Amino acid sequence: MTAPLTDALTGQLIVSCQAPDGDPMRHPDTLVRMTRAAQAGGAAAVRVNGPEVVAATVATIDLPVIALWKDGAESGVRITPTVRHALALVDAGAAVVAADATARPRPDGSTFAELVGAVHAAGALVMADVSNLVEGREAASAGADFVSTTLSGYVPGPPRAAGPDLDLVADLAAAIRTPVVAEGRIATPAQAAEALAAGALAVVVGTAITSPTALTRSFTEALGCP
Ligand SMILES: CC(=O)N[C@H](C=O)[C@@H](O)[C@H](O)[C@H](O)COP(=O)(O)O
């Protein structure tokens, strides 16, 4: 089952259609409209947050849905933190469940490999969201179908770079056979192309496409607006 989706995603753009807590765009119908816009613009898949939005997206567009469920404190494991969260996303129709695969303990005590096993048994694939090369290797060994650089810069440790972590993309692509997805702080079409050249199977772009609040702020800050 991995192969057809891998083929469909090769060299393609995945649009992350999410909005943070409190953002005016965090509204199910609005988020589903973002996925429709992504499809209209040629995206090969979308990445969406929460079972309600996943189910509404699956009912609305024809693209594969990569689903996560952000739950819990910003400081801990937050992207699909437990097996329960993962299986709820499969029930909602996710083709792929994205889950934190960092070395941090999961709140339900499960291992990442156990989450992979549960999702596979339920008939979906797994995208491992990692922050470094070691986690990527371990996620591949645990059976992840895709490894994404999502969490580089978002766990305690090295400071967050301004741009995408293309070194991690290249290191992962050289180290594992599992397809690598470039994700996180990809802000321009040129950076997306660089990520593919670095060895990514596909590129996920979120904020630069789907966050008018962040994009507005980038302009107001550049202008020194109060
Ligand atoms: C770290 C974390 O929680 N990342 C989340 C994962 O789903 C999203 O908030 C990001 O928007 C997504 O990864 C895409 O990245 P960017 O918005 O930088 O293009």
UniProtKB/TrEMBL annotation:
Q: Which Gene3D superfamilies match?
A: Aldolase class I
Xref: Pfam families? NanE
The record's GO molecular-function terms, alphabetically, read: N-acylglucosamine-6-phosphate 2-epimerase activity
Q: Which InterPro entries match?
A: Aldolase_TIM, NanE, RibuloseP-bd_barrel
Record GO biological process: N-acetylmannosamine catabolic process; N-acetylneuraminate catabolic process
What's the Enzyme Commission number for this chain? 5.1.3.9
**What reaction gets catalysed by this protein?**
an N-acyl-D-glucosamine 6-phosphate = an N-acyl-D-mannosamine 6-phosphate
| Function of the protein | Converts N-acetylmannosamine-6-phosphate (ManNAc-6-P) to N-acetylglucosamine-6-phosphate (GlcNAc-6-P).
Record protein name field: N-acylglucosamine-6-phosphate 2-epimerase
> What organism is recorded for this protein?
Streptomyces coryli
